[in-house]
Design goal:
Length: 240
């Protein structure tokens, strides 16, 4: 119990940063995916003692996590649906790399990740790697702007394979997808998911957790799910 209290006391001294977009109708979604709908089911006005709403949401709406089964068919050794995904992959030390100077269509290379490691320390097995492009600045209702979903940067297949070889837990980004909008064949998805590495997409606020943090992003336990919306957050030192 003393150990658990010590952990609770340590966490209470940290700053908790919300990394999730608000779920709302008309929010950006991948062009071929279903839209988000939030409708009132029952309310005080209709004589109910409580307000109840219904959600209609795609597995990859908003800030979400990809299960490996999103791109891998059953029978692949790394195939897992969302409900089968170990929770250990959803929490851990995160290293946030800053590529805020990138423009739409640009892709992070293996050499750039190695360069970051030389300046900041090596990415290790069990780490969660987050890529900050600053693309959350374009997040807006679809009726206002389509900039977020028109084009975006990402990571190339060789860089994804380099991270996968390190045995990391997961990769995340503040863009619509880990593969850039100009990527062909989704090489980053296949390199990562094919190695049992889950992907977090549509994160926000990564500029606040550059460097090292403790990341948390638990999915819903969806049977047969290819992904799930999450509430992502990270603990950082208040001394920053």
């Amino acid at each position: 119990m003393k150990t658990l209290k010590g952990l609770a006391d340590w966490l209470s001294g940290m700053e908790l940063v919300d990394l999730s977009h608000e779920l709302e109708e008309d929010m950006p979604v991948y062009p071929t995916h279903s839209r988000y709908v939030h409708s009132k089911w029952d309310s005080f006005e209709t004589g109910s003692p409580a307000l109840v709403c219904q959600l209609l949401i795609g597995e990859h709406c908003g800030t979400h996590m990809d299960a490996t089964g999103h791109f891998l068919q059953e029978g692949h050794p790394q195939h897992q649906y969302m409900a089968q995904t170990p929770l250990e992959r959803c929490i851990g030390r995160a290293l946030t790399l800053d590529f805020g100077h990138y423009e739409a269509g640009d892709l992070v290379s293996k050499e750039e990740i190695i360069s970051w490691e030389k300046s900041n320390g090596e990415i290790g097995g069990g780490d969660i790697v987050l890529l900050r492009f600053g693309w959350d600045r374009y997040w807006a209702p679809r009726s206002v702007s389509r900039a977020y979903t028109d084009r975006w940067p990402g990571i190339d297949g060789e860089a994804a394979a380099y991270l996968a070889a390190k045995g990391i837990k997961a990769v995340g980004c503040d863009t619509l997808a880990i593969d850039g909008s100009l990527s062909k064949g989704n090489p980053a998805h296949y390199a990562l998911l094919g190695s049992g590495i889950n992907i977090f997409e549509n994160l926000k606020g990564l500029d606040r957790i550059l460097g090292e943090s403790l990341f948390i992003g638990f999915p819903l336990k969806i049977k047969g799910g290819s992904g799930s919306p999450i509430r992502a957050a990270a603990f950082i030192s208040r001394a920053r």
